[in-house]
Amino acid sequence: MQYQKEETFSTGVPKVDPKNPHGLGDPNDRSLRKVEVEVLIPKIMRDRAKADQCLKEVKSFEGCCRDNSIMMVINCRKQNDELKQCLSKWYTNETFKAECKEIYLKERSEYRATGIPKKHRMARL
Predict the structure, then answer these.
(1) Quick check: 30 and 72 in contact, CB under 8 A?
(2) Chunked in runs of 10, what are the mean pLDDT values of the chain (125 residues)?
(3) What distance in Å separates the CA atoms of residue 46 and residue 41, rounded to the nearest whole number?
(4) Which of 6, 20, 101, 103 has the largest CB neighbor count within 10 A?
(5) Which residue ranges make up each domain of the chain?
(6) In 60-118, which ranges are E strands?
């Protein structure tokens, strides 16, 4: 295995690649790794579906669980089925998937360009 010698300034500091300013990857790269496709984008889909698309079903299920405590497994089947049906409708919606993919790519690009994770960017606002 042969390693390429990294170019440095006369000070010994590596040159900064304008495509990769923080060593986190090219901010304009739109290729996705397997973990991004199978884990990270579906997480955004799940969070958005619960918060925006299926809010009524989520509240109904949560209320039922709160009211029935230990018996929720038996008493909240209807609400659980409605919630699962709503979520699966959004998980299979190709337009929704594409929107979530774009959200992920935008967040990743901002992270790669600034070097600041999303949670820290939000805290600074």
Answers:
(1) no
(2) 46 54 78 93 95 95 92 93 96 96 93 81 55
(3) 9
(4) 101
(5) 34-101
(6) none
φ, ψ dihedrals at 61, nearest 5° = -65, -45
Structural contact between residues 92 and 84, judged by C-beta atoms closer than 8 angstroms = no
Provide CB contacts within 8 A for 103, sequence distance 6+.
44, 48
Q: For residue 9, give every residue at least 6 positions away whose Cβ sits within 8 Å of its Cβ, in sequence order, or none.
A: 15
Cβ-based neighbours of 120, under 8 Å, separated by 6 or more: none
The SS3 assignment for 116 reads: coil
Enter the pTM of the model.
0.73
